[in-house]
Structures are given as C-alpha cells and as structure tokens.
Write a structure and sequence with these properties.
- Belongs to the ABC transporter superfamily. Drug exporter-1 (DrugE1) (TC 3.A.1.105) family.
- The chain starts with a helix and ends in a 39-residue tail after the last helix.
- The strands form 3 sheets. Strands 6-7-8-3-9-10 form a 6-stranded mixed beta sheet, with helices on both faces.
- A hairpin with a 5-residue loop joins strand 12 and strand 13.
- It is elongated.
- It is of the alpha/beta class.
- The chain is built from 12 helices and 14 strands.
- The protein is 34% helix and 23% strand.
Amino acid sequence: MTSSNRTDHRAGPAIETAGLVKTFGDIRAVDGVDLRIEPGTVYGLLGPNGAGKTTTVRMLATLLRPDGGEAHVFGHDVVREADAVRGLVSLTGQYASVDEDLTGTENLVLLARLTGHAKKASYDRAAQLLDAFGLSEAAGRQVKNYSGGMRRRIDIAASILNTPDLLFLDEPTTGLDPRSRNQVWEIVRAVVAQGTTVLLTTQYLDEADQLASRIAVIDKGRVIAEGTKGELKASVGAGAVHVRLRDADRRPDAERVLRQALGADVQLEPDPVALTARVGNGSPDGAAAAEKASRALAELAHAGITVDNFSLGQPSLDEVFLALTGKPDGRTDGQPDGRPDGRQDGPPDSRPEPQPTLKKEATA
C-alpha cells in the first residue's frame, strides 16, 4: 500500500471501539474497552500480563470475534467488514512469526510473493528492508542463528512489507537486551514517520514513555486511565518529593514528618536513606506543590533531621502505574519473558548493529 492510498482513511480515527468485550468461560478478559486512536500516531496499551492487552489486539486484528461492543478500523467494522480490515493492518506478535529455517532474504521474498509481488520486485523489497533494518550482512543466514534483537527486527520488517496503514506491535521488546530494545524503538519511530499508525502493547513503562503519544492503562480487562503522558502524570499529582537523609536511623522520623507536612503516603525506597512522597495528589497545581515541599523541608530541619538531598520532580510513569493499579510495574505474574520454548534470546551478536533508516516502499 502506498502513502497515496492512505489519504482515503484520514478523515476519521484509525481505531475506535465502544464497550468492547471478550469472555473466555467465566473470565471477562476484556470488559467494556473504549478507545479512539488517531491516524499516524503511536498509541500505547500499558498493563500487566493478563490485563487484556493481547486479547484486545486480536479482536482489532480480526483474529478473535468480540462478544460485545463495537470496534472499527479506519471506519470498517471488525466483524462485518473483516476482509477490508485485514487489507489495512499487520500484526507483529510476541513471538517470532517467520520461518527460522529460512534465511532473512528467503523469508521476506516468500512473504512478498505470497502477497502478490513479482519475483524481481520481491527481491528488491526484501533487500530494501534488510538494509533499512541493519540486517544486510545477515541476509543469507538462517533466522534461527539470529540474535533476539535481529529476530524482532526481521519480524517487524515482515509486518511492514506492504506498508500497512495500521501496525499492531504486541510486546515487541519482550526478552530483549537494552541495546536491542533501543534499536526496535528506532524502527517504530521510522515506521510512524512513514505515516503508519501503531498500536503498541507493552508492560514496560519506559517503552510507553519513549514511544506513545497517548496511553491507555488497562488492568483486569478495563481501561482505568487514558491520556497523554503529561495528563497521566498530572492525574496523580503535581510532583513527587524525593528525599535522601544523612542518617538511615532517622528515616522513621522523616517518614512521620513528611506524612504530616505533605498529607500523603510516603514510600520507603530500597536505599535505606531514601524516601519518596507524591505532592498535590489529584491536582496539577505546581505552585501549591512547591509550597508544600518547601514546608516539608522546613519541618524536617525543625525536627533535627539532616537531609543530604531534597528534590521535587514530575511523577514518573512508574509512579502513575503504582497509583492507578497498586502494582509497582507491569510485570506482576512472574511469567518469564521470551518465546514459548523458554528461550530468551538467540546467539549473541557481538558486532555493532547499524541503526535503521527506513524508506518508503517503491510504487509501480
């Protein structure tokens, strides 16, 4: 699909759902989800394992039939117009979808031929994507010998072979090392720069913070908060006070003083001299938060508690998630990240991997 085809869809949202429901027996995996996602953006579904993220994506991609509610992709109903939806979307799941016994080139050429490309055009497109994703040197190697980061990149390359209008990325960096995660993030940015809309599901707070322009926090099948990063952070207060003490023995006293001065719960950090508390819970008033923080610092000094460091900063997404769900991060069930066979990564690739530079698919 070329960029000129996309303009036909731009009048309305890329995705719109109302009261979307999916049940498995007695389990309500998705429980009345409402979403509106604008074209050409990255939208993040953030939540723990089992929250309903993947089930939501599978319904939107027409792989599961909803049990209630409605969902539209570029104006097409996912149930009544499933064929039209499938022509607009592509899905990269949590685990490798390419054939690991084939080379990188063979995988992409096979998929190109299956989707109607001529032989020469298939090889040209495969070479273009392998180069863009930093995989040219590995093009002739079997995918089973790729590192985990390389496998994810070939997966995403396969997903955008025909330049989809909407790309579903379901936990794209699960099990990857930090360098590979950053490379996948660069690929996502390059894909969006072409005009593709991305629905990203993730349990990693920093990933949502880096990529998504809007985020829906989903827990137990329900959207419990939605907005921009700034809106979500403001929803839990104007800021967070971070305190570092001189003497760890005074931390119980400092906790009491801060709780009274700020009128908020105080979190004891793993570092025995560190404490954190939200300020202005539910209010984005930065001036009021600064006044409260100043008063708290004065109260600590009055109590004879020596403070080595005292700062007021905007809440992080970690603090937002904790405030909304009562859980410290998205990974709550102890399940290992990685592939179904338990492998976390492929053979290490010690060579530097080039950063991706994505070009648009050539048109006839």
